[in-house]
Amino acid sequence: MLARLALALTDWTERWVPDAFIFALIATFLVVAGALAATSSSLPQIVDAWGRGFWELIPFTLQMALIIITGHVLATSAPMQRVIRAAASWPRTPKSAVALVTVFALVSSWFNWGFSLIFSAVLAREIARRVEGVDYRALAAASFLGIGSIWAQGLSGSAALQMATPGALQPQIRDIVSHGGLVAGGLIPFRHTIFLWQSLLSVPIEIVVVTAVMWLATPPAGAGKTARDLGISLDDGPTPTSTLTSTLTPTPTATPTPGQYLEHSPLLTWLVVGLGVWYLTRYFMQAGEPLNAINLNILNLAFLLLGFLLHRTPAGLMRAVQNATPAVWGVILQFPFYAGIAGIITATHLSDALAGAFVRFSTQTTFPPIVAIYSAVLGVFVPSGGSKWVIIAPYVMQAAHTLHVHLGWCVSAYDLGEALANLVQPFWMLPILGLFHLGARDVMGYTIVVFFALTPVVIVLVTLLGMTLPYPL
Predict the structure, then answer these.
(1) 84 near 100, Cβ under 8 Å?
(2) How far out from the chain centre does Cα 470 lie?
(3) C-alpha–C-alpha distance, residues 307 and 111, integer Å
(4) Are 72 and 327 in contact (CB under 8 A)?
(5) Predicted TM-score (pTM) above 0.85
(6) Is residue 112 part of a domain?
(7) pLDDT number for residue 464
(8) Segments of 262-310 assigned E as strands
(9) Residue 409: pLDDT band by 50, 70, 90 thresholds?
(10) Residues 136, 139, 140, CA angle at the centre, nearest 5°?
(11) Angle between helices 58-75 and 314-324 (to 10 degrees)
(12) How many domains does the chain fold into?
């Protein structure tokens, strides 16, 4: 019944719901109208606020693009391909095959969601070649579940990274979080978000729940549809590493030129990696608290260095990055519009009215689950954790101060809800579905089942665990 419902909903969304960029454009004018109706700002003042805010997130836009690129680079390296082939030999039954992909997807997404998407998808296809009778659609759905559950609570979680990284949010939002100096600089380090014991506890709980649901939902051999049943050849579909070509780094000739020698020699790789590791070592040694020192720039540097090391040569790294860049166009196009929306919300004090609405309908106990539910609902229309947090952070954090709720747990509650939206919104599935030769309707029967099972768990977790935390941090 749930699968039929999922297919019907997917048919409806494919027909009626436009691309996420259209929602960014519509939201711009809705916020303009809201500022006119709920604040004393004039239309020229609102237009000025939009224009001033439009380009304020350029550093964060590039930082998020690099999260995607470095994840792709790591997943498509030769060592990772060897890991995939080894792991694919473990399962023997359809249920164990789907469960294995699910666990790999969830655990890897905690480190980097871009890496998880590519790594898990290639693993799922490799397992489909080896395990007879496994439902191909269940494997494809399992490879996506990391971004539908764990990713936002991990090292690449957008909201936590924004709160911990100077320059990732507008100064007005930092002032709201700071609340007159109560929170130094308006920055919330990782030890108050993803490294809270409450956050760390919720991760294995979600892993157990999601894996159990997929185990139970996977049909036995012969009852599901294999890739062969769906008319899909597992030999003709290229994996991300089998089609890596570049106009910038051609294969060296029999007698390489000096330029080709440098491109295909590991010498520069070792020098750069050594320099980077030296810097990171000094950086963390000089930090008072290493967990407080983690931010977007440090993570991206670490991921890039690891990618450089795994691809061995500058030519290998350039090919991998070139292949990864098409995945970031949506971030580059949409984030300035969300920054403009945030500029209106903060400059016109529309955040005060929105925060007041949250306060009227919340208490200190109910605020975290309300934030989680609101995040999940809004995520259907704005399927980007980072850009959505830019929009709602001003009034959510202001309401958290009013209700005396732990600010870091508000970020975690937002993250837990944010991931749920990805189970019913196929935006982030699309790059991977092409690899499987499937459509969203083929996998959403499974992801919707996970959504219905995981949502009450998330609501209980954010409510009960939130009661154990003090205000403000």
Answers:
(1) no
(2) 28
(3) 14
(4) yes
(5) no
(6) yes
(7) 95
(8) none
(9) very high
(10) 90
(11) 120
(12) 1
Q: For residue 211, which phi and psi values (nearest 5 degrees)?
A: -65, -40
Count helices and strands (H / E) in the chain.
Answer: 23, 0
Residue indicated by tokens 């003042």: 45
- 237: pLDDT strictly greater than 60: no
Q: Tokens 């060897």 correspond to what residue?
A: 82
Per the CB < 8 A criterion, the answer to whether 215 and 223 are in contact is no
Q: What is the DSSP string of 177-220?
A: HHTTTTSGGG---GGGTTTSHHHHHHHHHHHHHHHHHHHHHSPP
Q: Is the dihedral of CA 402, 408, 411, 415 positive or negative?
A: negative
- Report DSSP letters for 124-164, one per residue: HHHHHHHSTT--HHHHHHHHHTTTTTTGGGSTT-HHHHHHH
8 A C-beta contact, residue 92 and residue 131: yes
For helices 350-360 and 385-403, the axis angle rounded to 10 degrees is 60
Name the least confident of 101-110, 130-139, 262-271, 419-428. 419-428
Alpha helices in 234-382 (DSSP H): 258-264, 267-286, 290-293, 296-311, 314-324, 329-347, 350-360, 367-381
On whether residue 113 sits in a domain, the answer given is yes
Q: Which residue has the tokens 């959403």?
A: 444
Other beta carbons within 10 Å of 293: 17
Q: How many CB atoms lie within 10 A of CB 332?
A: 14
Does residue 251 surpass a pLDDT of 60? no
Structure tokens belonging to residue 263: 């491109």
Task: Please give the span between the terminal C-alpha atoms of the chain, in angstroms, as a whole number.
Answer: 44
Kindly state the average pLDDT of the residues 253-281.
84
Cα separation values, 280 from 274, 283, 299, 303, Å = 10, 5, 10, 12
Residue 247 belongs to some domain of the structure: no
Question: What type of residue sits at position 5?
Answer: L
Identity of residue 260: Q
Q: Is residue 360, in this structure, part of any structural domain at all?
A: yes
CB 90 within 8 A of CB 100: yes
pLDDT at residue number 277:
93
pLDDT of residue 1: 62
Rounded to an integer, the average pLDDT of 418-436 is 77
* Per-residue pLDDT tens digits for 63-82: 778 877 887 788 778 888 88
Closest by alpha carbon to 148, among 381, 393, 436, 426? 426
| Distance (Å, whole) CA 321 – CA 303 | 12
Domain around 450: 2-237+263-466
Residue 85, C-beta contacts closer than 8 angstroms, at least 6 positions apart: 126
